[in-house]
Amino acid sequence: MTTETTTPELRKITSNNESFTIESYNGFERLIRDIDGYVNATKLVQLINEKENINKQLKTKMITQMYREYKKFIQDKSAGTKKDQPLQLEYQLINEYINEVRGTYEHKKLTNIIYMKISIKYLDIVIDIMDKINETTIAQHHADKTQAIADQFNNVINVVTDTLSDRITDLNQQI
């Protein structure tokens, strides 16, 4: 049985006694499997293709060198000192689920590679953000040449992250 509920920003879908959430991520809808937080990459690519009137395929993006290297990086990072089973970063939901939730699911961190490889608009936004971070780092370095530029970069990232976190807190308190 399938049920759907709607809130102003989220939609919930139930299939096979599991809950899924459709949420917005930087202007794109994405389907999240609530049990593990993984993103339906198949649906993500379909939505981007529709929104941007393109026809790109998920499989071709998942076999790229960058995707494989980043996947290994995440697995190694999550393993830390553990030497057991590496983190499973993608899997498929098929037959026992309704069509709306079927597809390839992947770890949230991997979705940014998919966004950047599928959507030129998303890639352009990421580049603009990184350029502003770089400009700020260089300006900060010119103002204080006693500190290593790598340290100044980390400081800028911390300021950006803290500023956004404070903004999120302020907005959440207004709700």
Description:
Helix 1 runs parallel beside helix 4, helix 3 runs antiparallel to helix 4 and helix 5 crosses helix 6. The N terminus is likely disordered. The longest helix is centred in the C-terminal third of the chain and has 26 residues. The protein is globular. The protein has a 7-stranded antiparallel beta sheet with strand order 1-2-3-4-5-7-6. The chain folds into 2 domains: 118 residues, Mlu1-box Binding Protein, DNA-binding Domain (Roll), CATH 3.10.260; 55 residues. It has 6 helices and 7 strands, in the order E-E-E-E-E-H-H-H-E-E-H-H-H. By secondary structure, it is α+β, with helices and mostly antiparallel strands. Strand 1 and strand 2 form a beta hairpin.
SSE order and pairing:
Blueprint: E1 3-6, E2 11-15, E3 18-25, E4 28-33, E5 38-40, H1 41-52, H2 58-62, H3 65-79, E6 90-93, E7 103-106, H4 108-118, H5 120-143, H6 149-174
Antiparallel strand pairs: 1-2, 2-3, 3-4, 4-5, 5-7, 6-7
Helix pairs in contact: 1-4, 3-4, 4-5, 5-6
Beta-strand proportion: 15-25%
Structural class: alpha+beta
Q: Give the CATH architecture of the largest domain.
A: Roll
What is the CATH fold-level name of the largest domain?
Answer: Mlu1-box Binding Protein, DNA-binding Domain
How would you describe the oligomerization state of the chains in this entry? single chain
Give the strand order, joined by hyphens, for the main sheet: 1-2-3-4-5-7-6
Would you state the CATH class of the largest domain?
Answer: Alpha Beta
Number of strands: 7
Number of domains: 2
The overall pLDDT, averaged over residues, is 88
> What is the tally of helical segments?
6
CA(first)-CA(last) distance: 33 Å
